[in-house]
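Researcher: Go.
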Amino acid sequence: MGNQTGIKTLLEVGLDYTLVEELEKTEAHFQELAINYSKLNETYKRYEKIISVKRSLSVKEKDVFDKLVVTMAKHKQQMDVLEERKKIIVSKMYQLNGAFIKIEHSAMPGTLIKIGERHHLIKEEIAGPKTIRLIDHEIRVI
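Model: Structure:
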């Protein structure tokens, strides 16, 4: 693993990359909704000021205000669903049971091992055969 010049090499196990992509898409959609919700909220506050000054709205203004309230509720509901989806994705993203890296010959300095969210940089050559595992939340060479 790695190379003798010490150039960084990344080996990662225990992570489902399809879920990483799904999480990125979900977060992007959530951010888009959050930006739109913020704009809708600004408009809502302007209508509240109009109502506090005029004490009433015209029929057209009332219709627009009602649509605004419904749209805000839909955005909020979609954002809540996306938040739950993000939590589910993150909980399934790391599959650490049985995750390991097998060193057949050697692992060179500069090799970065990632198991789940944990990192371990190999600083000195490790002669194989060895196994790298996550034990008690710590990456260990066995």
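Model: The chain is about 50% helix and 25% strand.
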